[in-house]
Design brief:
Length: 172
Amino acid sequence: QKHNFHIKIINILHFVYELHENDFLKHAMNNLTDIDLSYNALKRTDCVVVTYCLQACRHIESLTLLHCNLKSQELEILLPVFEKCRFLVLDSSSLGDCEVNTLSKALSPSCKTEELVLDVRRLSDEKMEDLFSALCSLQRLTEVTLSFHSFTESCASLLVNLIMSCTRLQRL
């Protein structure tokens, strides 16, 4: 039943998008703060719709994208939305080596993300370093949850750098 709920949300966003009525869009999205689009295999057109609609949100408290099968092209389209999210959740189906560069663009110092949940099990050591470099630039970051495939000495070193760089970090 929860899966059907997620499908309905994407359908509603498509409906709002197809209206192309800015006043209605602003009114409809004004108080939307928590968005969970999990279990939708989001295609590029879906990502355009999501970005169009969510950019009208005054504030995005959380965006959850579990099992959405996002690739670099889809992540690129969603970048403006990621930058507005206080809490962002992405899983391993959306985060491989190819996607790290794109995600790193969103994780810039101007990014509003304070809490981040990432599944990094599919990342190479090199891309893990790139991701952690981007994470270290997030001045607002207070909480990070990471899922590792294996916790290596390299991962430990990256985590220490993250702790030293993110002075507001409270939970890891």
